[in-house]
Amino acid sequence: MTHRTTDLLAVAARWAADPGGWPEPLRFDPVTRWYARLAADADHEVWALSWLPGQGTDLHDHGGSAGAFLVVAGVLTEETVSGGRLRPHRLPAGAGRRFGARHVHLVANRGDAPAVSVHVYRPALRWMTRYDLTGGRLRVAEVAEAGVAW
């Protein structure tokens, strides 16, 4: 498939359908979110993440990569910036989200049960920019290299 026809959410759904077949066994880390790259090719890369209650990301983008994610188990909350404020979107198991290369969000497990998600990015992540939302405006807090200090 070419990158113009690959539906990244459909790719996430295929991986989500068989966690037992993942090359990395699913784990939960009590200190921080666990993540592992499951696959990568010329078109996209696939990551699995686990989230214990209270775990989440900072407000961030994906360094120019477009993507999608699908909640495999549990419930995640995605917050996006609209009108200078964070707006929450609750995503239960089976719910997914496609996003473009300029998407800024944070994702967190605000529930009381563990959650698992599959994320697909095109092109592969090279960096992520973290942001602060101050006075209704996004300000760059840090640029992090992919896989380092996420």
UniProtKB/TrEMBL annotation:
Keyword annotations: Dioxygenase, Iron, Metal-binding, Oxidoreductase
CDD domains per the UniProt record, alphabetical: cupin_CDO
Residues reported in the UniProt entry to bind Fe cation: H60, H62, H105
GO MF annotations in UniProt: ferrous iron binding; oxidoreductase activity, acting on single donors with incorporation of molecular oxygen, incorporation of two atoms of oxygen
Pfam families, per the entry: CDO_I (PF05995)
Keyword Cytoplasm set for record: no
InterPro entries, per the entry: CDO_1 (IPR010300), RmlC-like_jellyroll (IPR014710), RmlC_Cupin_sf (IPR011051)
Keyword Transmembrane helix annotated: no
Superkingdom, taxonomy of origin: Bacteria
Family named by the database record: Belongs to the cysteine dioxygenase family.
Protein name: Cysteine dioxygenase
Organism of origin: Micromonospora globbae
